[in-house]
Amino acid sequence: MKKLICILLSVIMCLCVPVFANADEACDCGHAPVVLVRGFGSPMFAVQEDGTQTALVSLATEDIMAMIPDIMAALGKLTLGDDVGFAKAVKGIVDGIADNLYCNPDGTSKNNIAVLANTEVTAEVHLQTEYRFDLNQGGNAGLYVFEHDWRLDPTATADRLHAYIEEVKAVTKHEKVVLVAHSQGNIVATSYLAEYGNDSVEKVLFTSPAYQGLRLVGQLFTRDVSIEGKASAVTEFLDTFMRLNMDQQSIVTLIGVLDEAGVLDAVVGALDLFLDSTLDALYDYVLIDLFATMPGIWGFVPDAYYEEAKTVMLQKEEYKQIIPVIDAYHYGVQTEVPELLADLEKENIPFYIVAGYGIAPIPVYEDAVYQSDMLIDTDYMTLGATCAPTGELLSYEGDMLPAYFSPDLLIDASTCLYPDRTWFLRYQGHLDMCGAYDAFLSWLILSEGQQTVFANETYPQFMQCNEHAAFDAVTEPEEKDERSYFVRLFCMIIDFFKNAVAKLFGGFELKLPEISC
Predict the structure, then answer these.
(1) Can you tell me the distance from the alpha carbon of 38 to that of 40, in angstroms, rounded to the nearest whole number?
(2) Whole-number pLDDT of residue 516
(3) How many Cβ atoms are within 10 Å of 152's Cβ, its own excluded?
(4) Pairwise CA distance, residues 86 & 76, whole Å
(5) pLDDT exceeds cutoff 70 at 19
(6) Which of 52, 299, 422, 459 has its C-alpha lying 20 to 30 A from 219's C-alpha?
(7) Which 3 state secondary structure label does DSSP give 442?
(8) pLDDT, tens digit, 9 for 90 and up, residues 83-97
(9) Angstrom distance (rounded) from CA 144 to CA 172
């Protein structure tokens, strides 16, 4: 009996050794490693037969020279009004430039494509004390950056993300990671949560999330494209998009002058006539072949457009092979995002949503009045925010501004699914991140427990970037410049000459005429 007890105790001790050893090896740095899931546009390369990597899209001089016959043919067909001939010629040009982008009818890549390598998983990355988020150039710090092929099935990409997270956990000796996703990266992140659950996640940051799609892509995939009468909408889009960059205001002013003079309307009208006559042919011979078999792009189609988009884009019998792939994401992930967030809340896992607003949408569809971050609609990013149509303000009853109501009267965040956890950045371009963004996200990452929009006065719910250095609270409706663009151009010219004279005669006291603008 004693011998049996000894054997059992020995077995128990042997089983416990790995547990104790693992506990001794656990990282005691006090913060989980951060995995950033990049969005659309991760650098990719074509892999040649000898294993060398070349540019995904070829625009070398010799390639452009080789396309000259197709370019001349396209211009000739366009001049003759041959829409089908024009589209076929454009198809030749697209094939020459972007042949590596094409996917098979089942949604897999037609060519051997390599994605930029993920951040090498070493403990040193995690031990950096400051985070830097560079969504354009890849100059990130303190982050394990996950790259992916943005064309492919996000649910399959989620499998790769799972493997990467497991590697990060093993190397850093942590049981969980902080998951930060940007743009299309949110499609991959929610696919991961749907497939693998929340066990390996300490908190989640959804920044500029595309997890509910984009109206722009929904309209494009249902052929609902028109720029008729959109001259003023073009001006509005540029004005709001370039609002924070004073160097670009001269461009907006010049466009506005063309708009008020009727020139822009004529140009837009001519482009609309061109689209009206050639768009169907371009879809049939170019756009459908290029985009219809990319599951990653289908992830951008909102639920309201999805079934119609399949009817429009998948008329070719062989392309219907992709339907099970895109349905699995759409109905298994995109439409389940509210439930995925509810699961995070139920398990007390902090999560946050950060969205841009105040920028008019790209004006290529009929009801282009929704606020956006230039690409993604604010109401989709925030799961239900009530947004004032472009050029208008919201109203409210009573003397006090309601809770979750933006002081500039553009957003009512009370209708968001999670108003306490949703921040809004005014005039924040989709990739044009403010210099204060690093500090803001770092606070969310390093803070303990679930923070809210009321927790830190430095980061109120509605913010605007100040000189690309800090966030300021949005405090009141922006004063609208009621001057005509002709007057603005005149004032801009006067200011230019005043500055030039001041620099030229800096040592002299000159009395310049006062001109009020």
Answers:
(1) 7
(2) 59
(3) 21
(4) 8
(5) no
(6) 422
(7) helix
(8) 999 999 999 888 888
(9) 11
Residue burial 417-433, b: 16+ Cβ < 10 Å; e: rest: ebbbbbbbbbbbbbbbb
Q: SS3 for 266?
A: helix
DSSP codes of every residue in 118-166: PPP--HHHHH-S--B--TTT---BS-EEEP--TTS-HHHHHHHHHHHHH
pLDDT for residue 423: 98
Q: What is the pLDDT of residue 7?
A: 39
What pLDDT, on the 0 to 100 scale, is given for residue 389? 93
* Separation between Cα atoms, residue 360 and residue 370, nearest integer Å: 7
pLDDT tens for each residue of 43-64: 899 999 898 998 888 777 777 7
What is the residue type of 238? L
For residues 350-383, one letter each, b for 16 or more C-beta atoms within 10 angstroms of the residue's C-beta and e for the rest, the string is bbbbbbbbbbbbbbbbeebbbbbbbbbbbbbbbb
Confidence band of 509 (pLDDT split at 50, 70, 90): low
Alpha helix (H) residue ranges in 242-322: 249-260, 263-282, 288-291, 295-298, 303-313
What is the predicted pLDDT for the residue at 495? 75
Among 426, 425, 419, smallest CA distance to 441 is for 425
Q: How many residues does the chain have?
A: 517
Percent of residues in the chain assigned helix, strand, coil, to nearest 5: 45, 10, 40
- Please choose, from the candidates 37, 58, 137, 231, the residue with its C-alpha nearest in 3D space to the C-alpha of residue 431: 137
Question: pTM for this structure?
Answer: 0.88
pLDDT of amino acid 55: 86
The answer to whether residues 269 and 74 touch, using CB atoms and an 8 Å cutoff, is: no
pLDDT for residue 355: 97
* DSSP assigned state of 283: I
Tokens in use for 155?
């649910």
Other Cβ atoms within 10 Å of 151 Cβ, number: 21
SS3 per-residue string spanning 377-422: EHHHHCCCCEECCCCCCCCCCCCCCCCCECCCCCEEHHHCCCHHHE
Angle at 126 between CA 120 and CA 131, to 5 degrees: 105
The answer on pLDDT for 487 being more than 90 is: no
Q: What is the mean pLDDT of the chain?
A: 87
CA pair distance 331, 429, nearest whole angstrom? 29
Which three-class secondary structure string do you get for 162-224? Answer: HHHHHHHHHHHCCCCEEEEEECCHHHHHHHHHHHHCCCCEEEEEEECCCCCCCHHHHHHHCCC
